[in-house]
Amino acid sequence: MNDYHEEVNAIGLKCPMPILKCKKGLNNLAKDQVLKIMTTDKSAKKDFQFFCEKTGHKILLIEDEAEITTFFIRKN
């Protein structure tokens, strides 16, 4: 997916840092803009899904490549 407005690198960070970086990245965006965030945290899928359910943001795509999971999240 190439259509995003901000990119955050959370590679190598452990919970809760990827979520905190995600929240900070989303704060820089306007409604309906998309954040790309990359992480190696093994619990990221569960954490990001829970975070988005609670905040109303939407995960558009999850890409797994080697050790890196990339999320594209639309701001609510």
How would you concisely characterize the structure shown here?
The chain is 30% helix and 34% strand. The protein is built from two helices and four strands.
Question: If you had to describe this structure to a student in words, what would you say it looks like?
Answer:
The protein has 76 residues and is an alpha+beta fold. It has one domain (6-74): Translation Initiation Factor IF3 (2-Layer Sandwich). It is built from 2 helices and 4 strands. Strands 1-2-4-3 form a 4-stranded mixed beta sheet, with helices on one face. A hairpin with a 2-residue loop joins strand 3 and strand 4 (68-74). The longest helix has 12 residues, at 44-55. The protein is globular, with a radius of gyration of 11 Å. The model has no long low-confidence stretch (mean pLDDT 97).
Per-chain topology:
Blueprint: E1 6-10, H1 17-27, E2 34-39, H2 44-55, E3 58-65, E4 68-74
Parallel strand pairs: 1-2
Antiparallel strand pairs: 2-4, 3-4
Distance between the termini: 19 Å
* Quaternary class: single chain
| Radius of gyration over C-alpha positions, nearest whole angstrom | 11 Å
CATH A-level architecture: 2-Layer Sandwich
Point out poorly predicted stretches.
none
The total domain count is: 1
**Highest-level CATH class:** Alpha Beta
Kindly state the percentage of residues in helix: 25-40%
* CATH superfamily placement: TusA-like domain
Supply the key terms.
34% strand; 30% helix; 2 helices; alpha+beta; 4 strands; Translation Initiation Factor IF3
